[in-house]
Amino acid sequence: MDVTGALDGITILDLTRILAGPTCTQLLGDLGADVIKIENPAGGGDDTRAWGPPYVMGSDGEPTDLSAYFMSSNRNKRSVAVDIASAEGQATIRALATKADVVIENFKPGGLAKYGLDHESMLKAQPGLVYCSISGFGQTGPHAAKPGYDLMAQGFGGIMSLTGEPEGMPMKVGVAVADVVCGMYATVGILAALRHRERTGEGQYIDVALVDTQIAWLINEGANYLASGKVPVRRGNGHPNIVPYQVFAALDGHVIVAVGNDGQFRRCCEALGVGGLADVPDYATNPARAVNREALLATLTPLFRARPMAEVIAVMEAAGVPVGPVNRIDQALASDQVAAREMVIEMARPDVAGGVVRLLGNPLKLTRTPVSYRRAPPRCGEDTVEVLGALALLGPRDFA
User: Fold this and answer.
1) Is 179 annotated as catalytic?
2) How many H helices and E strands in the chain?
C-alpha cells in the first residue's frame, strides 16, 4: 500500500534559522510537507552550521557544514541559497511564496518589512497564505524589539528560577527547550490555520513568541503561584506538590522514585523495610508529606543510598512503585526501548564519511499517515538549481 504523509502536497517556505523555526519546519517535513529552506550564501547559511564541533566529516576527510546541531532540526528540507537583502533575492522569495501554502520566518519584528516580505505585504498579495512569525517576545509589547534567544526566554519566563539546587544558581534546562517547545506551538498554530483555510479559503497571520510559550509551559508551578500568591522555589530534583517524587542517590548511581499516591508510598516504605513509616500521621497522606518533606527525606535518603541501583529498581518494580534509572545520553540512546521505538535513525548521504548520518527519530507514530525520512539534512544551497529551475514550471498555489 502506498502511504503518503498527512501533509503531502503542502509546501512550506522556510525563512527561519537556529532552532525554534527549524524545529517546526522539520516536524512539518516529517509529516510529508515539502520544505524549502532559504539560506544566505554570504553568511554560510543557517547560523547553526557553524555551531560545532562536532561536524560530520566529508568523504574527503574534511569537516562539512553539517554540524550535529544543524542536523538536529533540518532533515526533510531542500536548501536554496538566496540573498534576501538583494532585490533579486526578494523577487525570488516572492515568486517562491506564490507556490507555497505557508511562509514561516524568525527575523526581528518588522525586519522583513523593508524587503516587502512581511506578513502584511505577502498576505495582501496572497490572501490564502498562512504566514507565521517566531520571535523572542512577540510582535507587540514593550519588549518586542529585544533579541530573542532560548537562554533569555528561560530567564525572563521564570523557568530558570525553578531549575537547580535550592541553594545554587538558577539553571537553564540542559537543552534549548524554550526554542523546541516554541517550535512545537508554532506547528500546532500552522496546522490549525491550514484547517481554517481548508474550510474557508482564508489565510491568516500567526504570531508566536519564545517567552509566551515558555510562560505557557510553567504549567502547575505557574498555576500554583496564581492560586496561592506564593513564589515557587527551586527544589532540585524534587516535585513541588508530590513527595517523594525525585532522584535519589543509590550505591552506584542515581534512581528516580515517583510516588504518585498514598498506596504507592506505603508499598515504597515496605520495600525499604520501614513499612511503619506510612502510618505516621506526618507522612500518611501526600499533603502531610509535602509539609514534612525535609524530615521524610532525611529518613528515606540513606535507605536508597545503601543499595545498588539494580536492587532499588528491582524491589520498587516488584512493589509496584514507579522507578527508573537516570541514564547518560549514551545509555539512553543504546537502550532496547529506543531501538524498539526507532528513535535513532540513519539517513543516506553519499558525500559524508560512512555514507550515512545518524539522527534522532520523530516520536509520532501514526497508523495511516506515518512520518517519513526522505531527505537527509542538506548542505547549504545544494537544492538551489533544482528548486529555482522548477519555479517557472509551476503555477501559483490555488487556495480555493
Assistant:
1) yes
2) 16, 13
Query: What are phi and psi for residue 323, nearest 5 degrees?
Result: -150, 155
Q: CA-to-CA distance for 217 and 6, rounded, in angstroms?
A: 27
Read off the C-alpha cell for 369.
499517515
Give me the catalytic one of 179, 207, 212, 383. 179
Tell me how crowded residue 167 is: count the other CB atoms within 10 A of its CB: 7
Could you read off the pLDDT of 166-204 as tens digits, one per residue?
Answer: 999 999 999 999 999 999 999 999 999 999 999 999 999
Three-state secondary-structure class, residue 233: coil
Number of domains the chain contains: 2
Answer yes or no: do 162 and 268 share one domain.
no
Domain extent, residue 289, equals 260-321
Q: For the whole model, what pTM was predicted?
A: 0.93
Q: Is 53 exposed, middle or buried (0-12, 13-18, 19+ CB in 10 A)?
A: exposed
Within a domain: 327: no
pLDDT digits (tens, 9 = 90+) for 310-356: 999 999 999 999 999 999 999 999 999 999 999 999 999 999 999 99
* One domain, residues 311 and 205: no
Please report the pLDDT score of residue 398 as a whole number. 66
Contacts of residue 54, Cβ cutoff 8 Å, sequence gap at least 6: 67, 68
| 161 and 288 together in one domain | no
C-alpha angle 38-30-19 in degrees, rounded to nearest 5: 50
* Residues 213 and 266 placed together within one structural domain of the fold: no
Distance CA 160, CA 173 (A): 7
- Of 298, 321, 344, which residue sits at a domain end? 321
